[in-house]
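Glutamyl-tRNA(Gln) amidotransferase subunit C
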Amino acid sequence: MDPQELKITAAMAMLELDESGVAALAGAVDQMLEYFTTMAAIDVKNVEPTTQILAASNRLRPDGAHNNNPANLADAVLEQAPDLEDRLIAIPNVL
């Protein structure tokens, strides 16, 4: 990449580069372009698109009605609380 193009690109990205910074950026850009060229040469026509590298499936439970009474559920939760104040879970002060 031309050094003048690098300076323009750096200015558009609001980067202030001295000559050593431009040289370092030129090396990094050349390395990226070489990598992109290598990637473009790879034949991927028969590769299935993926969103992740590991095969995954959703763990779904059957959707069905449950006989959970909200009052019974609240009582069960409150029974497990370490400290209560008038059917409210008491939380110690942090400060």
